[in-house]
């Protein structure tokens, strides 16, 4: 398959101004009649017309000129077909400026296992059109720079199976029975009409039809318009929709208050479906969601699930302006909408809860997912230069680093300046398909600043490193800070990096920060001077992680302990603790690699953990919990020259166990004092309390002895919500029950399964904790799990709950004999037959192979080559070949 290049962008020779669809959803095949009202692009007269189309059975193609005259087109004479679509010769098109192209095609939604285009989930019809799914429904200009209004008529039979028929926009005709002809055969058919008056690209088209339950509400916009809100799910789950509705209303209000952005239609619908490749989709006025990001009740959803639902509901809603009204010129610009919308959802979640906790969570994701991606063969700039399968570019880099880039604009121009930039962006580009350069220009022009160099964040991949060194002049009372930037990627030009820096006086940390400045590092090396610094400071650098870079500064252990205690930036207080534990863990990794056994933990680490554990004045218990968590394996692995998964596993286990032993009584007493004192509540204080207590439970279960098993089982039995229940059973899953030991494990897992009572999302958790358990024979247990009657490869959530959980838990995946790799290779090949998008994503789990020892590299490369050589889908082929380089 041939790649597409960003540099080759060309506007189309024709524009589709309006799309009329008539879709027959029957028991058998689905027939789609479409009419595209076209207008020639005056800039490229005489162009042929290309319509994308894939796996469509074509019945006929016709043209209607602007006098209403219809001509049937003939293959070869008038048009040609290939696997990608249809090329209609200019000579077969009317010479006038405007004309209509009609096609009639047949598709097979029930056989659609790719979950792209129109497919069925649980007997209901639904669509997923981003990035290139619309072409699997009908022939069309399936490219984001072609924006059209839509009229959709849905016809369905038998009518009783389709009480719900939805599409984008307004609904002049809700589901209505088609009258049978007098005296004729009874027609048990119904239809509905939807009109979307706001031009949109085809990737935002959606339809949903079937038998669903719903909850309803309304939202009155700031200008007084009443919007009808409705959230749909399978009928048995409607009791789990309230939180999504509450989150939606909060998001609508927040966007009005923070960005002045008001919803523009009279209807906003959300539908939850069980079979979905990603998290959710922002189709205009009809968001479609993976059930995992909608359904919640305390008995089945954890606090983290609730937070994710709030964030994703917000994210998809915010796309209405950042993505839908102003969309992408081409798919290379994906971060224009995704980076910006992730940033907006991060701000929203911070405003709804705690900014510091949210920032820590987001930085953990950046470091554990994006930094490794940027260090491996799939590394790409946030605005990629080429792709084979666009679906492969919904990456941590485009989304998460993209959001960091947007955050840097705000750091550089300030909150008010950022709002001015956003206002100008909407003023200039509402209704347009634009580029990342247009966004940057709006930010620069609104604030009268030069952001030319800032473009390098869009052009250059890789995680820059910033090293810092400071010098205090006691006589002059100045502090000179020298910052240097570098990159592991060759030919990288200096980035424009905001380095927010605070200074804390060593002698009297209690005075807090004496100076805080937003430094702008633009050269390879720059020195910044702080005046009037009374005594020697310790710098607090890159506050709140003001840029997606790796910072190097030679802090002593005492400096870090000082910052943990005194830094006025709560993110950097957490960061200092992470650095301290990273240092200890990596030191142990070296000892283990050198053939030794890991030694005792330094007293400084135990003391700082004790201090954090016993700290009484942390109002936000989530922050306290995060400060007690060790850096995750993926983040630690990033700091190793050659990743040694066995040594890393051993070191981490040793540190966790040593902390559990050294602080046993303190951990237990804080665990006990954090026990629930009343009925379940979902407020931030209670969420923080549960988070802290369950973080402590994960230490307390480390001895893996009878007492620890009992403690976990007691929590499991007493739990009044999924958060506490899952935390307990996840710990129990780690107890090795070989030979009948620890019967609590099987008992809890069996009870958990029975309590699930078939709830798909709870069963995903049940599969997930077992597939990620810390057990020696994990792979064979995973293979057994896949024989379970509730396991299926066809549902992406279920598949990931086993396969991705196993591979993501690292240690057994990287077993030296290559068994984990062979398992993943087999899975990729099998799933690729069903769903290439999901398979190629699984294949990316091999992408860090170059970071491992020769033997593991060879074993992973073998699997990648096996995948590449097995004629896989273009999605999976692209991942395998890019990994192999
Ligand atoms: N914009 C949406 C992306 C998405 C997607 C992409 C490819 C294949 C399937 C997909 N489902 C959703 C989701 C978002 O980022 O908001
Ligand atoms: Zn998005």
TrEMBL record:
Its EC number is 3.4.11.2. Residues 462-553 form the Peptidase M1 alanyl aminopeptidase Ig-like fold domain. GO terms for biological process: proteolysis. Its cofactor is Zn(2+). Residues 557-884 form the Peptidase M1 alanyl aminopeptidase C-terminal domain. It comes from the Eukaryota. Keywords: Aminopeptidase, Hydrolase, Metal-binding, Metalloprotease, Protease, Zinc. Residues 243-457 form the Peptidase M1 membrane alanine aminopeptidase domain. The keyword Protease applies. GO terms for molecular function: alanyl aminopeptidase activity; metallopeptidase activity; zinc ion binding. It is an enzyme of class 3 (hydrolase). Residues 19-171 form the Aminopeptidase N-like N-terminal domain. Belongs to the peptidase M1 family. This is Aminopeptidase. It comes from Ectocarpus siliculosus. The lineage of its organism: Eukaryota, Sar, Stramenopiles, Ochrophyta, PX clade. The chain holds residues 165 to 1049 of 1049 of the full protein.
């Amino acid at each position: 398959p041939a790649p597409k290049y960003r540099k080759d962008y060309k506007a189309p020779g024709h524009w589709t101004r309006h799309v009329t669809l008539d879709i027959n959803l029957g028991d058998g095949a689905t027939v789609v009649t479409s009419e595209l009202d076209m207008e020639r692009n005056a800039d490229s007269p005489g162009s042929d017309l290309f319509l994308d189309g894939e796996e469509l059975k074509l019945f006929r193609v016709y043209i209607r000129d602007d006098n209403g005259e219809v001509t049937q087109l003939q293959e070869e004479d008038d048009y040609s077909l290939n696997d990608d679509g249809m090329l209609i010769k200019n000579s077969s098109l009317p010479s006038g400026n405007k004309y209509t192209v009609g096609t009639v095609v047949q598709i097979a939604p029930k056989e659609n296992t790719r979950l792209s285009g129109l497919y069925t989930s649980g007997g209901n019809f639904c669509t997923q059109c981003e990035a290139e799914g619309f072409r699997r429904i009908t022939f069309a200009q399936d490219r984001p720079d072609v924006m059209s209004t839509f009229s959709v008529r849905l016809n369905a039979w038998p009518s009783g199976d389709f009480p719900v028929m939805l599409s984008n926009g307004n609904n002049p005709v809700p589901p209505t029975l088609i009258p049978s002809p007098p005296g004729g055969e009874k027609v048990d058919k119904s239809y509905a009409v939807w009109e979307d008056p706001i031009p949109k690209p085809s990737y935002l088209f959606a339809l949903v039809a079937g038998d669903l339950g719903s909850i309803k509400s309304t939202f009155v916009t700031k200008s007084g318009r009443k919007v009808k809100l409705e959230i749909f799910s399978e009928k048995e789950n409607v009791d789990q929709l309230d939180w999504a509705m509450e989150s939606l209303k909060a998001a609508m209000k927040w966007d009005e208050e923070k960005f002045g952005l008001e919803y523009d239609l009279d209807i906003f619908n959300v539908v939850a479906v069980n079979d979905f490749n990603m998290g959710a989709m922002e189709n205009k006025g009809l968001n479609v969601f993976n059930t995992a990001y909608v359904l919640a009740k305390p008995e089945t959803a954890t606090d983290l699930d609730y937070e994710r639902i709030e964030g994703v509901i917000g994210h998809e809603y915010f796309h209405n302006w950042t993505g839908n009204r102003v969309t992408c010129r081409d798919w290379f610009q994906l971060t224009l909408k995704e980076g910006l919308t992730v940033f907006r959802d991060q701000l929203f979640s911070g405003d709804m809860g705690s900014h510091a906790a949210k920032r820590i969570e987001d930085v953990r994701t950046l470091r554990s997912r994006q930094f490794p991606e940027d260090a491996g063969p799939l590394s790409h700039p946030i605005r990629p230069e080429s792709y084979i399968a666009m679906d492969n570019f919904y990456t941590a880099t485009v989304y998460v680093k993209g959001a960091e880039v947007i955050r840097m604009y705000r750091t550089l121009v300030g909150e008010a300046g950022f709002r001015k930039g956003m206002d100008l962006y909407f003023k200039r580009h509402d209704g347009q398909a634009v580029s990342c350069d247009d966004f940057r220009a709006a930010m620069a022009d609104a604030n009268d600043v030069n952001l030319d160099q800032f473009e390098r964040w869009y052009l250059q991949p890789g995680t820059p490193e910033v090293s810092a060194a400071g010098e205090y002049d006691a006589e002059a009372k100045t502090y000179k800070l020298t910052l240097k930037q570098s990159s592991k990627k060759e030919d990288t030009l200096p980035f424009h990096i905001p380095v927010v820096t605070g200074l804390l006086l060593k002698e009297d940390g209690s005075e807090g920060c004496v100076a805080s400045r937003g430094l702008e590092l633009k050269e390879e090396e720059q020195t910044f001077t702080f005046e009037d610094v009374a005594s020697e400071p310790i710098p607090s650098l890159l506050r709140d992680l003001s840029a997606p870079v790796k910072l190097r500064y030679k802090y002593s252990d005492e400096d870090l302990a000082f910052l943990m205690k005194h830094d006025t930036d709560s993110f950097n207080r957490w960061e200092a603790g992470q650095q301290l534990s990273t240092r200890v863990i990596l030191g142990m990794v070296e000892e283990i690699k050198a053939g030794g056994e890991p030694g005792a933990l330094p007293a400084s680490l135990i003391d700082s953990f004790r201090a954090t554990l016993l700290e009484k004045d942390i109002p936000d218990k989530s922050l306290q919990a995060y400060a007690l968590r060790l850096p995750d394996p993926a983040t630690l692995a990033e700091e190793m020259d050659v990743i040694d998964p066995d040594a890393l596993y051993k070191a981490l286990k040793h540190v966790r166990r040593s902390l559990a032993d050294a602080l046993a009584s303190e951990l237990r007493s804080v665990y006990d004092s954090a026990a629930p004192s009343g009925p379940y509540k979902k407020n931030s204080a209670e969420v923080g309390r549960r988070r802290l207590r369950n973080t402590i439970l994960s230490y307390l279960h480390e001895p893996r002895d009878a007492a620890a098993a009992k403690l976990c089982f007691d929590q499991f039995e007493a739990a009044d919500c999924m958060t506490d229940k899952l935390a307990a059973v996840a710990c129990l899953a780690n107890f090795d029950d070989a030979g009948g030991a620890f019967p609590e494990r099987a008992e809890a897992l069996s009870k958990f399964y029975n309590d699930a009572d078939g709830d798909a999302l709870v069963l995903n958790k049940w599969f997930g904790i077992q597939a990620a358990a810390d057990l020696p024979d994990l792979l064979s247990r995973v293979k057994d799990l896949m024989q379970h009657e509730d396991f299926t490869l066809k549902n992406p959530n279920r598949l990931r709950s086993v396969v991705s959980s196993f591979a993501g838990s690292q240690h057994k995946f990287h077993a030296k004999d290559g068994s984990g790799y062979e398992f993943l290779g087999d899975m990729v090949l099998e799933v690729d037959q069903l769903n290439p998008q999901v398979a190629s994503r699984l294949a990316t789990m091999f992408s860090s192979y170059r970071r491992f020892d020769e033997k593991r590299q060879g074993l992973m490369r073998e699997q990648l080559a096996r995948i590449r050589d097995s004629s896989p889908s273009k999605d999976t082929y692209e991942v395998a070949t890019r990994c192999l380089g």
